[in-house]
Every structure is written in C-alpha cells, then in structure tokens.
Write a structure and sequence with these properties.
Layout: E1 10-19, E2 22-23, H1 25-34, E3 40-41, E4 52-53, H2 61-64, H3 69-72, H4 75-90, E5 103-108, H5 114-127, H6 136-140, H7 144-153, E6 159-162, H8 168-181, E7 187-195, H9 199-207, E8 236-245, H10 246-251, E9 258-267, H11 280-292, E10 300-304, H12 311-325, E11 330-332, H13 335-338, H14 345-359, E12 361-362, E13 378-379, E14 385-386, E15 391-398, E16 402-409
Parallel strand pairs: 5-6, 5-7, 10-11, 10-15, 11-13
Antiparallel strand pairs: 1-2, 1-8, 1-9, 3-4, 7-8, 9-16, 12-14, 15-16
Helix pairs in contact: 4-7, 8-14, 11-12
Pfam families: ketoacyl-synt (PF00109), Ketoacyl-synt_C (PF02801)
GO molecular function, one term: 3-oxoacyl-[acyl-carrier-protein] synthase activity
Keywords: Acyltransferase, Transferase
Length: 411
Amino acid sequence: MPAARPAAPVAVTGLGLVTAAGIGTEATWDGVCAGVSAAARNPALDGLPVDISCTVPGLDPARHVGRRSVLMHDRFTQLAIVAAREAVADAGLDPRRWDGARVGVVVGCGLGGVSTWEEQHRRMLEGGPGKVSALLVPMLVPNMAAGNLAIDLGATGPNFVTATACSSGATAIGTAAQLLREDACDIVVAGGAEAGISPLMVTGFAQMGALSRRLDEPAAASRPFDAGRDGFVIGEGSGILVLEREADARARGARVRSLLAGYGASADAHHLTAPEPEGRAVLAAVRAALRQADAAPGDIGHVNAHGTSTRLNDAVEAATLRRALGDGAAVTSAKGVLGHTLGAAGAIEAALTVLAVERSLVPPTANLVQLDPDVELDVVAGSPRKASIDAALSTSFGFGGQNAALVFTAA
C-alpha cells in the first residue's frame, strides 16, 4: 500500500473519454447525467447465454485514429489513443513541443487484445498458420496500450500498463501521481482502456454468473444498488487523465480541473472473484486515500462507487462506505449507463469524479428503482443533483481482491 501520510496534491489538467455514451468527454458526461442506459442486444454476441453489452457507438478507426490503425491496433488501443489525444489537447499541451523524456504514460488494462486473439485463432484453425497476422502479438499484449500512446505522443519517459483487473485504471492513476511526486517525470498521461466485448470473454463472465440475465429488458439490466440487480453488463471504453504537479500546472497557466489528493490500495487476500465479506481491505484502501489527502470522512461530499450491479459487490461496498464515511456523501455509479468497462472502469469513473467536483453536479444512478434496503447510503437516482463538492472519492475493485481508492478535491 502506498504511504498514507499527507502528500502534495497533483493537478488534473486534461480529460479524455470514449464510452458507450459517446466519443468525447462531453458526450459521456451528458449521457451519464441523462441516466439512460447504453446497454443493448449485440448481434456480435448472438447465440450466447448473454448477448447484452454497452458498446462505443460510431468509432471509425481510420477516421478517429488513422488509416493504418485497422491493421495495426486492437480496439482497446484505438480507444486509448482517441481518449489520450483528447486529454492532451484539453490540457493545452502540444506533443510536438514538450520534452518527451519528461512525459510518462501509465495505462490500466485487464485483458488486452482479446478480440484480436479470438479472430487470429479462428483464422489459424480455418486457414492454417499462413493466415495469422504478423502483428498478432503486438496487437494483443496489454502493454501496447501504453506503448502505442508513447509512439503517438512522443512520450519517452516511464511507460507501463497496470493490470489489477477492474481496478486497473484507478491503480494507473494512483501510480502516475507517485511518479510525479518522485520527480520521475513532469507530465503523466494516465488512465485505462479495455475492449473486452468478445464472445469468449462474455461467455466466461456468463459462466461464472457475473452477468445480468435481464435479456428481455437490456436497457434495465445494469442497476447498481437496486434490490432487483442480478449482475453487470459488459462494456468497453477508455478514460485518460493528464496529471502534472500542481505548481508546474499553475506556472504554465494551465486550467486545473481538480486535484488528485489521495490514493490508497490494498488486497483482500480472500478469494479469486468474491469480495471479502467484511470489507476490511477496502476500508483500509479508503482510509489510506483519505490520510494521504489529509481529509476526514466528513469532508467527502460525493462518492463515485464501483457499483457493479452484482449482488455481492454492491452489498460489501455499500456496507464499507457506510462504515468509512457515514451516510452524508451523495453516491452514484456510472455503470447503470456505461456498463462495466473492466480495466478501464476506474479511470473512466475517476474522470467523471473530476467533472462532478468541477461542475458541482452528481449524476444519477441509472435504473435505480428500489434501493436495496441493506444499502444505507444516499444514492442519487432519477436526475442529477446539484451539490457543492470540496472532496470526492472514487472506488474500484478487481478480481483477485485488488482495491484502489482515489480522492479528488476542488481546484
């Protein structure tokens, strides 16, 4: 776990989002605030036990990334590049003019190029080894999300991918802040990317009982904290933040959208997929993030919860948040709209937390019709809620019991 003592805040100067709500930060924010689920039946999943997904609409690799991208990049890399370009532009930075040796890239990814893996395996079985792309390996390995961003942006500083399952994106952001505080670089492009909507991956999650079976009502399938929740809806997307030391950002006249003030991480050491019932390690991660931010539980006015819409996760998370913070924070989960984007979720939700702090607005939790009576939290539903937010918490948890918590404060 990172040091829990108070640390100098890190400035968030740029945001980039690509999600099932749309391409771009504003499209995603508008979609999440509208509270209308992006989930739908997916023809690419026809014949599977579950065929619902939250898919990014209208992404054209040739137009949004470049003509050669179709041949060179898996979809998770394409999503990362689009989000990163937006984030860097939003930060007012020009990669042609920065010192690339002082720019790091840290991206969270849980799966890598699973669609490429499946497609190329199919080609080998049907046509033999000669039909397999020579770019199979560089298209599918998870580190290529960060490697391709370095190539695209000319960033030659520290460069790697964090893989902590569904907390990968949050882990990447927390790690990026540490790099800045250690003076390993001056700018870090950090976040997460995932494109796991493939027949094999969806079948795997369905076989373990993690996915919603509300097939006759896909738009209502993802319902975090609702009494009728029965599993998550798989999604895809990317969230990228540009992070800088606060003093550096203000010295160059950058718009500081929010401050990343605290990060905590922990492991349940309990089970491959199920959360530890008492939430002890989750509580430790939250408290570590609060200590690093020099914040008290009562300072947290908003929580962007992991909120997967699964029976166990939502119950344990809700009980742990209540224990850590009380019931005074306005809680939401974006997964009702965006689905569960796996390794990208923590980064996408971190970006949404920044926007909530910046705009004093908490988006609703989509499909929350009847709050689970065991969830003793103030979960926002129906419509966005105006709120003055000095500090907010974003929580992320992954298979293997890996937990991450981020605290963002107003700039």
